[in-house]
Amino acid sequence: MPVSDLSIAGAPPVRRALSRGLLWTLVALMAAWSLGPIVWIFISSISVRAELYSVPPHWIPREPTLAPYRTVLFAGEGFRGAAGQAAAELIRAGLVNSLIISTATTLLVMALAPLLGYVFGRIEFPGRRALFYFVLALIALPGWPIIIGLFPMMSSLRLLDTRLGLVLLLFTYRIPFEMWFMTGYFRAVPAEIEDAARVDGCTRLQALYRVTIQMVRPGVVAVSIISFLHSWNFFLVPLIMAYTLRSKPLTVTITEFVGQYFVHWDLMSAATIIAIVPPVVMVILFQRHIVRGLSAGAIR
Question: Would you say 138 and 264 are in contact if contact means Cβ atoms under 8 Å apart?
Fold first, then answer.
């Protein structure tokens, strides 16, 4: 076989190898970009405070310790950033507030998003299309101007620095997304199935909960999990609307480790790792439901 034929025959495997190498290089870069900060935070959380200021920095701690975790979970020092409060008190209060706010917001979304999706996806009424697009347009509104307007309103309603106020704000922020998602699910369910249930004696509400909701259950599960994750990670609104431990979530209490003249990097890193654990566990446990719900909604 001529040399030219050999080169032509060998070209596709070379291109495939180059493409595969480029693909894995991009994957490695994306993984390093995503996981690098988390790895560095974990290393900082098990390092003594003196090592965090060493020059040059190093990846492996010379004297690894779990003292920062004991400090933020059980007992610890007070510092200027938290007005002299113990680190453990600060983090425990933030954990409790985050769990309450995220759970309450998720329950509201689970209850109302399917109903709103059903209304816009199934029921005909005057102005339905205009109202639907108006609600969707709320998604595009910038956050800062809305917060500026909401602050005096929340103050007049005495909802500042309350868990109820944060739940209501988070819910109203998330509900357009979840309503849009659920509307697509209900539009994909054949109306004949619901009509058959009503012929068998079900009311519209009974047909909704006994038949239609069962068919869109993957969407409800996906919406609920995503709502919980978003509520757990929310930062901007609580930073402005919550200013005591009565309502500050964990995302905000972590910032208390930043003082005027000193940053407690070890404590802040340990608290950050603790804050990462619940959403990571939830995603691992419900990964199949999230993928199934989102992919089914996309296909439909």
Answer: no
Span 32-59, pLDDT tens digits: 898 888 999 999 899 888 888 887 877 7
Residue type, 75: A
Cβ-based burial of 136 (10 A; exposed 0-12, middle 13-18, buried ≥19): middle
191's CB contacts (< 8 A; 6+ apart) are 122
Measured CA to CA, the distance from residue 207 to residue 214 in angstroms comes to 10
How open is the CA angle 75-76-79, to the nearest 5 degrees?
Answer: 145
CA angle 51–56–60, rounded 5-degree value: 55
- Out of 39-43, 50-54, 151-155, 276-280, least confident range: 50-54
Amino acid at 83: A
Q: Which two structure tokens, joined as six digits, stand for 141?
A: 């509104």
DSSP one-letter string for 148-190: HHHHHHHHHTT-TT-HHHHHHHHHHHHHHHHHHHHHHHHHHS-
Mean pLDDT over 157-178 rounds to 92
- C-beta of residue 174 within 8 angstroms of C-beta of residue 227: yes
Q: Which two tokens stand for residue 26?
A: 């991009």
- Residue 246 pLDDT > 70, yes or no? yes
Q: How far apart are CA 165 and CA 241, in angstroms?
A: 8
Tens-place pLDDT, residues 208-239: 888 888 888 888 888 888 899 999 998 988 99
Among candidates 190, 245, 166, which has minimal Cα distance to 254? 245
Closest CA to 231 of 174, 149, 147: 174
Angle between helices 217-233 and 163-188 (to 10 degrees): 150
